[in-house]
Amino acid sequence: MTEVNKAPHPGDGPPPVGGWTRFVTARPRLSLLAALVLTALAVLAGSGVADRLGSGGWEDPAAESTYATKALEREFPDSQPNLLLLVDSGRASVDDPAVAARARDLTERLATEQGVTGVGSYWQSKSPALRAKDGHEALIAARITGDENAMGKTLDRIAPHYRGTHGPVQVKVGGIVAVRHEMQTIIKEDLTRAEMIALPITLVLLVMVFGSAIAALLPLGIGIVAILGTNAVLRGLTSFTDVSVFALNLTTALGLGLAIDYALFIVRRYREELSTGADPLTAVGTTLRTAGRTVLFSALTVAVSLAAMMVFPQYFLRSFAYAGIAVVLLAAAAALILLPAALLLLGHRVNSLDLRRLFRRTAKPSGAEGTAWARAATLVMRRAPLFALGTTALLVLLGLPFLGVKFGTADDRQLPSGAESHVVQQHIRDDFPGSPGGGLEILAEGRATQTQYADYKQRVAALPEVVRVDGPLVKGDTAYFTVQPKGEAVDSAAQRLVGDLRSLKAPFDTKVTGTAAVLVDSKHAIGERLPWAGAFIAIVTLLLVFLLTGSVLIPLQAVVLNALSLTAMFGAVVWVFQDGHLSGALGFTSTGSIETTLPVLMFCVAFGLSMDYGVFLLSRIKEEYDRTGDHNEAVRHGLQRTGGLITAAAVILAVVMVAIGTSRVTNTKMLGLGIALAVLMDAMVVRSLLVPAIMRLTGRATWWAPAPLRRFHQRFGLSEGEPAAPAKKKEKEPAGV
């Protein structure tokens, strides 16, 4: 990346070394040694964290459906199977004597396994629902007891003894416990592969950006410290609360991405200061007062966006808040404490091992990159209305598919088509009667007579969306009914049926659960809390950006433009993952819907990353405006200084997210590829085109604030650069404006 010299003010001496600089550079070797010891302890503390994480967390724990599910599991455990053995008899019928004898033997053996209850099969009950339409497959159902980790251990212990060939039958293992366990295993494997892909590519890109191999290794080191530290934090949290295994992906992505962003910004500024002739200690001090403040603000804005997920009750979303906040704060702390110590020890050797010497003849001349960004800024501001309208129209157009979004629940189709549990569930969907997994269950609590139960059952059966009602199964004062709806498990008709059942009067308390009921409750929980999360993000972001800039308009622009930058991501999510375009090329199974929590997660993460880049750009613009008082020159200068840096950081983060997006689990693939697209659109379209165009149109009014707020900012605000009174000079227009 081209170095840009900072012109010193005439007569200025080197700025004094501040207290923070003295703190982080007083004992640099000791600081790095302590970091090494803490990192080693984090490795030990975080070992095995993936085995303690859950693969669920999409439901609201306080919802009616959650209460009913737990009550049914407690009162009628045998009726809540989570393990299914698909028994394939080949060309023979499942009623063939040899097949039936072997299937009964497997059923009886499964019933003796520790941690397994409620074992039943087609060969015992002769239930048509447990027999395939063609008569060549049937099911053995059971329930594995315990929490998620205990169920996984039981499945690992027993599955190898049932999977495979048993005389005349072939057995495959499925059910919700197998789906979740296989998902957890695949995510761990995919995460290791993603790291192996991302790290070497990232290192190559960093070498291309810095030239120096020494400088390129520093951001990677910061990222590794942040990731290992966050794993230790997550391991500790699992002792108190549920944490989703999906959070590991965010830990890796943000740990590498943000650490690289922060280290890029600090190392770049440090090298600029060295190039002006400053000694290493002075360069570190100036870097911390300028780029260090920007990194601090950036970390706070990203943490705020991620913290908003804490307002939602689903532990899937809360897990990303835990992981995200931890990794952001650790990345910022490492960049502001460890990196300055390393830079002080390296001094001018930070530029050592220049691997671009081999390509020096073809390299761009010094300053070419900055000049190119300056020319781009001038062009954009010269045609500001055209660029503002054009980029806005493009982003809105790319986001239009999201108007057709349909929300659903995560199921086995998250897994690759060849995954065993996915194969089993797909066979059940395609070949067995009814809509397995789509049934609704009604928990009835309170003393009732058989006549009252029969009358209620008759009224349920009369509802237009109901195919069949079974039950009741009674135990004391508790009973339950199963309802088979028409159509798909979670389509709009099934969701309407949930509302009809809940509004149906009964002489006892009723609560409805099942796949569609869980979806209805999840949508309600998210919809109810979404305005609070949005307000939290907006208010705190407005405050932080005001403290950085002292402007009333810039924070509003930042929030609106950041939200606009996410439209392409949301449009692509629907067009690709819901509608199934590119499903063959990307290797996933489209379910025709988007899991309810994913858009919330993607918004919070992508909005935070967009603010990350926005802070980088605005801080340089503000620094130049404070120095010169020339608005247009400040915008041009800010883009010249940060355009290449932001683009390089976005490309590197996109590489990490794409590596995450190679996962075989659809939600992880959607998260990685979607955020990669959002990051690139933000850096290459919004920051490069839309922001300078809008700031050109708003002119010097961009920096306006009422007198009380100006005084507030003068007292409490922070910004990059040394305080300086704006020069009194005529506004300078870009060439041709």
Top keywords for this entry?
alpha+beta, disordered C terminus, four-stranded antiparallel β-sheet, 737 residues, 11 strands, disordered N terminus, 9% strand
Structural class: alpha+beta
Q: Unreliable segments (pLDDT under 50, ≥5 consecutive)?
A: 1-17, 359-368, 720-737
Strand tally is: 11
Estimated helix fraction: 55-70%
Strand content: 5-15%
Computed Rg: 30 Å
Supply the number of helical segments: 24
Overall pLDDT level: 85
Polypeptide structure, described:
- The chain has 24 helices and eleven strands.
- Strands 2-3-1-5-4 form a five-stranded antiparallel beta sheet, sandwiched between helices.
- The chain is α+β, with helices and mostly antiparallel strands and about 725 residues long.
- Helix 7 runs parallel beside helix 9 (about 245-275), helix 9 runs parallel beside helix 11 and helix 21 (about 600-630) packs parallel to helix 23 (about 665-700).
- The protein has helices spanning about 20-25, 30-45, 65-75, 95-110, 120-125, 150-160, 175-210, 215-235, 245-275, 280-305, 315-345, 370-380, 385-400, 420-430, 450-460, 490-505, 515-550, 555-565, 565-580, 585, 600-630, 630-660, 665-700, 705-715; strands at about 85-90, 115-120, 135-145, 165, 170-175, 405-410, 440-445, 465-475, 480-485, 510-515, 595.
- About 60% of the residues lie in helices and about 10% in strands.
Briefly say what this structure is.
With 737 residues, this protein is α+β, with helices and mostly antiparallel strands. The chain contains 24 helices and eleven strands.
